[in-house]
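Proteins fold reproducibly. Next comes an illustrative record:
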Amino acid sequence: MNLLPVHTTVGQMGKRIGLAALLALTVAACSNTNKDFNSGTKAPPGSVQEFTVSVGDRVFFTTDSTDLTAEGKTTLDRQAQWLTQYAKYSITIEGHADERGTREYNLALGARRATATRNYLMSKGIAPTRIKTISFGKERPVAVCDDISCWSQNRRAVTVPTQ
């Protein structure tokens, strides 16, 4: 049985092949989604993994600043909501700085960033007894290079949930 009409042009043939390829890609994409869901790659609700991946465990600061950005406040709002839902967790907020400046200056800056983050979470209803802060200054960079792209990743406060 011939599935193609006798008078099919090369252009029509190309359209059909393209449509078949698009259909195959759609089916493949759907099967990958199911595979990821069934293989357990999605973080379990209430887990530290969910906090890190779905809520967001860090906020970033501009140079020499302890002011929270709008994006940072949005992340902290999600953290506060999650911490309210899962009250079994306490948190440690780690303050960090980029590699520029003295060790002492960056330890103090990291401490102020951790404090700014703690104060914001407390303003959203998280009990101060659940929050510890620590400063690592410039001692634990996530990116090492002499460029703004690395420095901006290192100017951060990281919230670490613990039970």
Summary: The radius of gyration is 25 Å. The first strand starts at residue 58 and ends at 60. Residues 1-6, 17-39 have pLDDT under 50 and may be disordered. The chain is about 50% helix and 15% strand.
